[in-house]
Design goal:
heterodimer, A: mainly beta, Immunoglobulin-like, 11 strands, 54% strand, globular, B: 115 residues, mainly beta, 6-stranded mixed beta sheet, 5-stranded antiparallel beta sheet
């Protein structure tokens, strides 16, 4: 069982809707991620938060807006999406190591939110 | 840019046969992680390899990390129908300033097992 919880599991939204995906973890991890996965493709990194601050934005369109209210929660706000944005959105978390630690940083994924944009 | 190449893309085997998927990076990796994703599911962490030449086993699964830390393999002995899914390798590039878990995923190998 995953310790990263995502809601909703399924979401259908119109191109003019505003919706949010939510993610929660209680493993004490201080790094949280949003990935997007299309069918038969590997997960693609979208955003990374470290200590509740946005650290990485992989040139994601502004219609996706991440938010990290606290160390356990991560949201992804969706607005004016396109049909091609339909995908599985995966939240993940990991520890944040120091530069001297080469091991660690194992990423744990949630079950994902299946998004369909109509 | 950084790429982790994974082959084969698809593998169909009969139950009881062995299966291997390979990953190769153009640059040295600090570690490599393996994930399994069942059809309709999410990636599930299997293992992480860190040391040069490391070999780890989980029951019928054997994971190897190359001496140069640029390649890795996953071998399944005597496959079962429960092994069905897509296996992804994900490498973390060595020498980067960021210590975050920024992984570069291979494209995955989709394993089908016939009963």
């Amino acid at each position: 069982d995953t310790e990263v919880t995502q809601t909703p599991k399924h979401l259908v939204m119109g191109m003019t809707n505003k919706k949010s995906l939510k993610c929660e973890q209680h493993m004490g991890h201080r790094a949280m991620y949003w990935y997007k996965q299309k069918a038969k493709k590997p997960p693609e990194l979208m955003f990374v938060y470290s200590y509740e601050k946005l650290s990485i934005n992989e040139s994601v369109p502004s219609r996706f807006s991440p938010e990290c209210p606290n160390s356990s929660l991560l949201n992804l706000h969706l607005h004016a999406l396109q049909p091609e944005d339909s995908a599985l959105y995966l939240c993940a978390s990991s520890q944040v190591g120091t530069g001297l630690i080469l091991s660690g940083n194992t990423i744990y994924f949630g079950e994902g939110s299946w998004l369909t944009v109509v | 840019g950084q790429q982790v190449m994974q082959i084969p893309q698809y593998q169909h085997v009969q139950e009881g046969e062995d299966f291997t998927t390979y990953c190769n990076s153009s640059t040295t990796l600090s570690n490599i992680q393996w994930y399994k994703q069942r059809p309709g599911g999410h990636p599930v962490f299997l293992i992480q390899l860190v040391k040069s030449g490391e070999v780890k086993k989980q029951k019928r699964l054997t994971f190897q990390f190359g001496e140069a830390k640029k390649n890795s393999s996953l071998h399944i002995t005597a496959t079962q129908t429960t092994d069905v899914g897509t296996y992804f390798c994900a490498g973390k590039v060595q020498g980067r300033g960021s210590t975050l878990g920024r992984l570069y995923f291979g494209r995955g190998t989709q394993l089908t097992v016939w009963p």
